Amino acid sequence: MVARRKVAVAGVALSDCGRVDDATPYALHAQAARRALADAGLDRSLVDGFASAGLGTLAPVEVAEYLGLRPTWVDSTSVGGSTWEVMAAHAADAITAGHARAVLLVYGSTARADVRAGRRTGTLSFGTRGPLQFEVPYGHTLIAKYAMAARRHMIEYGTTIEQLAQVAVQARANAALNPEAMFRTPVTVDEVLAGPVIADPFTKLHCCVRSDGGAAVLLVAQEYVRDCRTSPVWVLGTGESVSHAAMSAWPDFTVTPAAVSGRLAFGRAGVRPSEIDFAEIYDAFTYMTLVTLEDLGFCAKGEGGAFVEKGRLRVEGGELPVNTDGGGLSAQHPGMRGLFLLVEAVRQVRGDCGERQVRRGDGSLPRLAVASGTGGWFCSSGTVVLGAD
């Protein structure tokens, strides 16, 4: 039996993020890609696999052309915010099978700048065809879907609005340690609750920021690790799952596809949730963090509120630091944020995070991490377990 190739993340990078008024999405893709290759210390000629979504008519063909790449393996899977964890899973499988040696995942968006310049509106329609045609006439917006799911959890399990607010408070506490975060000023539960209501029960600070920015991740086969300037972070296990398109087809608003993708990823990695040192979780809204923690197995179903209210998510003093850069709630959120989760997870495992660096109880660097992305309105999930060895 032929031994399976191991797959490592060799390079990660962000483009300029936050408020970027003078760049195109293509330029942010290129900036992040160049920085990730430089981070790895590898030449782009090694890259024979490419994955991108969300830009161009023929993604990833247009972006690859812009970057001067001619890949022989491509992926344009688009399942919302979880796209990048799903793509990482596909890329790892391709490298393991020998179909690629180095796969570059890239994303870039000027979501904030486009609204500011009037190139797009603040709320984009996902269309009116297919199953969505039965929801669009009633004005059921994206945020309303998340808010309705949160309210169901509150009714079902007694989760309080104060507990949801704690997610925002702790994300901001982590962002305060990140010099690149958009918003770093600490907030209190009372301040979160006092904000304008966006969609009941969410006030403004329950919702992610709108930013510009890009990210890139380079995965390579194990034989190229020796040529890298960085320490490898290994892909130990992955999982992906889809649930529903229409809210009426969602069996339980309190259970997300992460319950499946997480179980698969942990099982394939051969680790338990209790062994994870920190987690990067998609957080377009506070409820996403809370319910995903439950579905990944960090606490029992219905106990997410009690879990988050005790400060467990903080880098400083938290039992399970979550969204260590400040997450989409405070650091940056340019649209499909899943690739940013992988960048932060890799940086933490490598020990590159400065003031916000996670440490284990004995002061050592973290060994195991999980990045879990969510797409649509809990329509899809991708989970990746990463490790130092």
UniProtKB/TrEMBL annotation:
One of its GO terms (molecular function) is acyltransferase activity, transferring groups other than amino-acyl groups. Residues 239-387 form the Thiolase C-terminal domain. Signal peptide: none annotated. Keywords: Transferase. The keyword Glycoprotein does not apply. Transmembrane segments: none annotated. It holds the Pfam family Thiolase_C_1. The keyword Mitochondrion does not apply. This is Acetyl-CoA acetyltransferase.
